[in-house]
TrEMBL record:
The keyword Transferase applies. One of its GO terms (biological process) is lipid metabolic process. Keywords: Membrane, Signal, Transferase, Transmembrane, Transmembrane helix. This is 7050_t:CDS:1.
C-alpha cells in the first residue's frame, strides 16, 4: 500500500504521531534520583525476576532473589515515581501494579503446583484465558488480518479519545477537598448539597474517557500485533524469519492469532451493563479481572466450595486485591491518599454481594414471573410477549446500574480531577503548559 496515494491515511498517521510526541513543559522539582538511575532500578528489578523465573525456584537463595527483586520492583515507583513526568510515572506504576500481581500469582503457583508451573515471562503474554468452549468459535474466525481495517479501528478510537480528553480539559468542575463519601454523609445529616450536576456528569464522563484512553492504547498494541502477524504470514524471506526458528515463528504466530482473533475485547460496552457482576466481570477491563480473581481467591480457601459464604469471600478477595492495586497507583502517582479508591472498590464489592443476593431471592420467589411460563408456552405463541417482558426487565436493570455508577463515580474520579490528571492523558492539544505534579493533600 502506497501511503502517498492515500492523503487522508497519511494525514491520520501524522496527527497520531504528533499527539503521541507533543512534549510537555514539566514544572516538576529536580528528582532525588536521575531518571536513568530510576529506570535502571525499576527495569533492572524486573529483569532480575524474569531471569530467575524461567523455572520453579529450587534453592533458598533463588527464593530470596525473587522476593527481593519483586519488592524492589514494586517499591521503587511508590517512593520515587511522582517526581517524574506523567509518561514515566504512569508507565512504571501501571507496570509495577499489574506485573506485581502477576509475580505474586506465579510465586503462589510455585508453592501450590510446582510440577505444572511455567516460566513467569510467558504469564506476561497471557492475561485472559480462552475457554475450551470457545474452540469451535475460534475455527470460524478469520486467520488473516486486514491492516487497513485495524488502522481504521485505531484511528476511530483515537479520534473519539482526543475529543473526549479535550472536553475534560475545557470544562473541569470545582472539586472540594473533602472526600465525596464524607460529603454524602453530611448531606444525609444536614441536607447540604454534596455535588453539583455539572461535577456529577463530568465524573461519569471521565470514567468513559478513561475506558476510551485504555482502549486507545490497546488498539495501538493490536495494530502492532497485526503488522507482525502480517510479516509472519509472508514468504519466509524477511529479517524476522531469519531471526526466529520455524517453531518460534509458529509459536509467535499462534500467540498473535490468539490476541487478534480470540481474546475478549478490553472493554465490552460498559454502559450496557445490567448488574455489578456483568460490569466488573464481563465488560470492564478484562485484562485485569482474571489476575485479581486468581489472587483474591486465597481469601475464600477455608470455606467449603459451592457455599454462599465462599462465593462472597471470593468477591471480597477479588475486590480487595483490585483496591490495593488502585490505591498503590494513586499513592505512587499523586502522593498521599485519603483512601478514596480503596473504599470505592470495596463499596462496589458490597453492592455486588447485596445485588446478587437480592436478585437471587427475587428469582427464587418468582416475583414478576408468570407461573407455568416456560418453553412450551413460547411455542404456543407467547414469544413476543416473553421477549418484550425480558427486554423491559433488562433495560430497567441497565438504568438502575447506570444510576448507581453515576452517583458513585465521583468517589473514584474526583481524585484525578482534583489533581488535574487529565493533563497526563496523551492527546493533541493541551490547554495548560505544565503537567500535573504530585498533589500535596
Amino acid at each position: 500500500m502506497e501511503l502517498a496515494k492515500k492523503p487522508l491515511l497519511l494525514l491520520s498517521i501524522i496527527l497520531v504521531s504528533i499527539s503521541l510526541s507533543v512534549p510537555a513543559k514539566d514544572s516538576l522539582p529536580t528528582p532525588s534520583l536521575p531518571e536513568p538511575v530510576y529506570n535502571l532500578l525499576f527495569f533492572g528489578s524486573l529483569a532480575v525476576f524474569i531471569i530467575n523465573s524461567y523455572d520453579r525456584p529450587s534453592s533458598l537463595f533463588q527464593w530470596i532473589t525473587l522476593l527481593t527483586s519483586m519488592i524492589s520492583f514494586i517499591t521503587v515507583p511508590l517512593v520515587y515515581a511522582r517526581q517524574y513526568s506523567c509518561t514515566t510515572k504512569s508507565l512504571t506504576t501501571t507496570m509495577a501494579g499489574s506485573f506485581g500481581v502477576k509475580m505474586l500469582i506465579w510465586l503462589k503457583g510455585c508453592l501450590e503446583s510446582p510440577k505444572t508451573v511455567t516460566t513467569f515471562w510467558w504469564s506476561l503474554m497471557n492475561w485472559r484465558t480462552i475457554k475450551p468452549s470457545d474452540k469451535d468459535q475460534q475455527r470460524k474466525l478469520p486467520k488473516s488480518v486486514s491492516l487497513e481495517e485495524r488502522f481504521i479501528s485505531f484511528i476511530t478510537v483515537w479520534a473519539i479519545y482526543v475529543l473526549c480528553v479535550e472536553i475534560l480539559e475545557l470544562f473541569p468542575p470545582e472539586v472540594p477537598s473533602k472526600p465525596y463519601p464524607l460529603r454524602v454523609i453530611d448531606f444525609i445529616r444536614t441536607g447540604k448539597p454534596f455535588i453539583s450536576l455539572h461535577a456529577l456528569l463530568y465524573c461519569y464522563f471521565y470514567g468513559g474517557t478513561l475506558a476510551i484512553s485504555m482502549s486507545f492504547l490497546y488498539e495501538l498494541i493490536l495494530l502492532h500485533a497485526a503488522i507482525l502477524f502480517r510479516v509472519l504470514s509472508m514468504k519466509p524471506n524477511t529479517p524476522l524469519h531469519a531471526l526466529l526458528t520455524p517453531s518460534q515463528q509458529e509459536s509467535l504466530k499462534e500467540w498473535l492469532s490468539s490476541l487478534l482473533f480470540h481474546a475478549k475485547p478490553l472493554f465490552n460496552h460498559p454502559i450496557l451493563s445490567s448488574s455489578p457482576i456483568d460490569f466488573w466481570k464481563n465488560r470492564w477491563h478484562s485484562a485485569c479481572t482474571e489476575s485479581f480473581s486468581n489472587l483474591g481467591g486465597i481469601f475464600a480457601r477455608r470455606f467449603r466450595k459451592g457455599t454462599r459464604i465462599r462465593k462472597m469471600m471470593e468477591v471480597v478477595g477479588t475486590f480487595f486485591v483490585s483496591a490495593v492495586v488502585h490505591e498503590y497507583y494513586s499513592n505512587a502517582v499523586h502522593g498521599k491518599s485519603k483512601g478514596e479508591h480503596f473504599s470505592f472498590i470495596l463499596f462496589h464489592a458490597l453492592i455486588l454481594i447485596v445485588w446478587e443476593n437480592v436478585w437471587g431471592m427475587w428469582r427464587h420467589l418468582g416475583v414478576g414471573e408468570r407461573k407455568g411460563h416456560n418453553i412450551e408456552d413460547e411455542k404456543k405463541g407467547r414469544e413476543d410477549k416473553g421477549a418484550e417482558k425480558k427486554m423491559l426487565k433488562q433495560v430497567a436493570k441497565i438504568l438502575v446500574w447506570n444510576l448507581i455508577s453515576l452517583f458513585t463515580a465521583p468517589w473514584f474520579f474526583e481524585r484525578y480531577i482534583r489533581d488535574e490528571y487529565y493533563h497526563c492523558m496523551v492527546h493533541l492539544v493541551c490547554v495548560k503548559d505544565t503537567v500535573v505534579s504530585a498533589s500535596a493533600y
